[in-house]
Amino acid sequence: MAGFAPSKAESSHLATAISRRMKFALGDNLFADAIENVWRANERAIAVGLSGAQGSGKSTTAVRIATALHERGLRVTICAIDDFYLSRTERLELAEKFHPLLATRGVPGTHDIALLESTLARVLSATDSDAVEIPQFDKAADDRLPYPEWRISRGASDVVLIEGWCVGARPQDLKSLVEPVNVLERDEDRDGAWRLYVNEQLANDYSRIFSTLDLQLMLRAPSFDCVRAWRAEQEAGLSRSSPNAQPPMDDATLNRFIAHYERISRWMLEDEPADLIADLDTMRAPHAWRVRNV
User: Fold this and answer.
1) What is the CA 7 to chain-centroid distance, rounded?
2) pLDDT (tens digit, 9 = 90+) per residue, 58-99?
3) Rounded to an integer, what distance in angstroms lies between the CA atom of residue 124 and that of residue 132?
């Protein structure tokens, strides 16, 4: 029987798939090397940030990095900053007090900073016999899950990996806040009060937390233009099993939602607030890695 000979198209597809896997494996090991080196230098539990635009693959990358570190004998706990969003009720109260746009989760100022700080401190100091409750946020329902459904982190950790779209973000200078970056800011934040509030949060509470990170990693999107497509894919994949789930966003609603993130996302692409940066292609695969002193 004659052997199987793949077509040129099949061969090209196979070569592309192998190349992508190799890129991810290389990137995961570079990140893991950097984390292990910092851990060994400090001889204590360390906190590592992983940032990237919406839909850039932060969660899956965090899991792969944790797996690589586990294979080296390190104990890793992953925390997503998204799980520390304020509840829907709390955000509505915030919106009434400061600005209506704060009802939408996402930007700095819509997280429970006190809960984030206390949880990270507990995980970093946990012993082998400790158990730490980590909140869970249901994005489909747009609300935090009740306490009994929180995740439990058991035992000590060598590395706490904190992933999130704005992890490590730094405040902009005030002059940069004057001109709106999109229709949302132009029409719904005409006096700039919302973006000023968000920027102040970055300069204060968030800066305090981010300054405690021992290492900052970044998945850098090629541009903001591809972020919407990534976020649309993410929206389509959200679980709708919760009885309180909201209907999927249509294009107009999704565009407005993403507009809340645009300013800081663009600023992070420019500022690159990280120690080690992985440049992604439009398919989210890393293709270059850079060290940046910040």
Assistant:
1) 40
2) 999 999 999 999 999 999 999 999 999 999 999 999 999 999
3) 10
In one-letter notation, the amino acid at residue 92 is L
CA angle 24, 164, 48 (to 5 degrees): 75
- Determine if residue 185 is left, alpha or beta; phi over 0 gives left, psi from -120 to 50 gives alpha, anything else beta: alpha
Tens of pLDDT, residues 138-161: 988 999 999 999 999 999 999 999
Distances (CA, A) of 52 to 86, 265, 269: 21, 8, 9
pLDDT in tens, 109-121: 999 999 999 999 9
Indicate if the pLDDT at residue 236 is higher than 80: no
Question: For residue 166, which of 220, 222, 112, 106 has the smallest C-alpha distance?
Answer: 106
Where do we find the tokens 């290389």?
Answer: 26
DSSP string, 67-136: HHHHTTT--EEEEEGGGGBPPHHHHHHHHHHT-GGGGSS-STTSB-HHHHHHHHHHHHH--TT-EEEE--
